[in-house]
UniProtKB/TrEMBL annotation:
Protein name listed in UniProt: Acetylornithine aminotransferase
UniProt record similarity statement: Belongs to the class-III pyridoxal-phosphate-dependent aminotransferase family. ArgD subfamily.
Enzyme Commission number(s) of this protein: 2.6.1.11
Sites where the protein binds pyridoxal 5'-phosphate: G100, A101, F132, D217, E218, I219, Q220, T274
Cofactors (names): pyridoxal 5'-phosphate
Provenance organism: Bradyrhizobium frederickii
In-chain residues carrying the UniProt-annotated modification N6-(pyridoxal phosphate)lysine: K246
Cofactor note: Binds 1 pyridoxal phosphate per subunit.
Cellular location(s): Cytoplasm
Domain of life: Bacteria
Other comments on record: May also have succinyldiaminopimelate aminotransferase activity, thus carrying out the corresponding step in lysine biosynthesis.
Amino acid sequence: MTTHPYDALMDITARPKAVFVRGAGSYLWDEGRKRYLDFVQGWAVNCLGHSPPAVADALASQAKRLLTPSPAFYNEPSLKLAEALVAASAFDQVFFANSGAEANEGAIKLARKYGSLHKGGAFEIISFEGGFHGRTLATMSASGKKAFEPLFEPKVAGFKKAKLNDIASVEKLINDNTVAVMLEPIQGESGVWPATDAFLQQLRTLTEAHGLLLIFDEIQTGMSRTGKLFHYEHTGISPDIMTLGKGIGGGVPLAALLATERASCFEHGDQGGTFNGNPIMCAAGLAVLEEVGKPDFLKQVAETGRLLESELQKVSARHGLGGVRGRGLLLALDLKLPIAPGIVAQAFDAGVLLNAPQVDTLRFMPALNVTKAEIAEMIDCLDGILTKAGAARRVA
């Protein structure tokens, strides 16, 4: 095994010492050749698993043709991907970015531009307690994550926080300065807390009644994660603006801001980015969209999601845990006890990668093409850890 100078990287998060060198499908290998079953997948980034051939081939092929002509010129993959996203969605125009935070920053800017043009300078955006929209100053300000509150003050002004699934809490925050409502259909970082379909429908009615924009942050729920290509399709309504990230690139940095013709009001010079719409990344996005948009693929995601949910419910029943939340292949298990970090550490040692967004919650974000056998392997590992933990508690 190679000895690496870990201290050359800024220490921004706790990481295990393993250094990963290869990935294929649902598995990763470290430099010691230990294999890990991955149910995190880069936080729902690797929607087709690690190094999927379709994405790898698209990257290699495009790299031989054109890296970037600069965003001052059109390139073929970005035009094709924009056209494909528009054709598959309720939106009319697309702006490509490099990360979900950048796409959400663009959505905030677009809403404020709309307010300056059409609502007398309105700029306030209602977002939600528990929400997470990124780590730029504006997206941290829009987020409802408690840990962000003391950081990097002063924050960007103009964000008011409502309560998820409480339409009255939204309505009472609306005033003459309000331009939009922004939310994740399922709050991922706070522990996979879904907005109900009924609540999202109420939001659409409320925003239309007040002439406000409705913004869906589908960074984590988009690209078939919940069994539909986009989560809003479950609800029978559509927002004015939607952001995509994570899964859209299948493992490479790609994100998108989509908007209806009514909401698309950027003028020349308002928005840009050196690498935005890069042909290599957009070629990867085209390969991903072609795979995850197939009806049979979507059906498979829904079926596999139901299987994973059922198996987690069985684990919960066996060990006296809480409920299972989420949709499709974005699920959480409520442990009812602050034992999630310990379970994640034990699972890592056993060669299974899990995620604990909260100390009492496990989050599951496997590849969308995860197999039944791989689900069974993860469940067996989790079940074993919980059995040992229960025995230890009984002895204590």
